[in-house]
Amino acid sequence: MESLYLKSKEFLFAYLVLALLMIDILFCFPKSEIHIFINSIHAPFFDRFFLAYTHVGDGYFALFIVILLLFYSLKDFLFSASSFAISGFIVGVIKRAFFYGEPRPLTYFSGIYKLYIVPGLEPNEINSFPSGHSASAFAIFLCLALIVQPRWIKYAFFFAATLVGYSRLYLSEHFLLDVFAGSLIGLIATSFVYIVFSDFGKRISEKPLQTIVWELVKKARFKREK
Q: Which one, out of 21, 69, 92, 176, has a CA that is 20 to 30 A from the CA of 217?
């Protein structure tokens, strides 16, 4: 397998720029000011768009992509499934073991500032850090960037993951720090799994499920005929 950098340099470079920007903002402004500024920018079209698009970061979408990859390559299926599972596990441990009850924007600003809430949304109130949707999106889209070859698609995958992160801010489900941490977890989880697969996944078949099943059926028929 090619090195992680060579196969995903477009995605990783774009993320580096974004990460530096987020770090700069986080160091320069309090999280409350950052969130109030983001919350002040809204429009009916974006309300509907982000209310729907944020689901790209939930587990169901990631699971759908993982299952699709099973019919593309067994190795890619196991790679993406492992990345998604590890990122989700890390987020779950951090949320419940270290930051359980961490207030989300709706709770944090209660009685202090009236946030704009997108119509039809019922925001969560606690367990803000880190953002699970952001972790899932960056984990699964980095997987796809490592699997798919065209350079422009790698940038498109980065943009798709970034939109998920922004949707969590737009909907006041998370603060910027939550999204940054989640994206970093997703990136690290997928990078770790890719490196492990580079060393220990060489024996895993790259054939899709249907090909593997068909070959097993043919072998079984051949044995019966003998």
A: 69
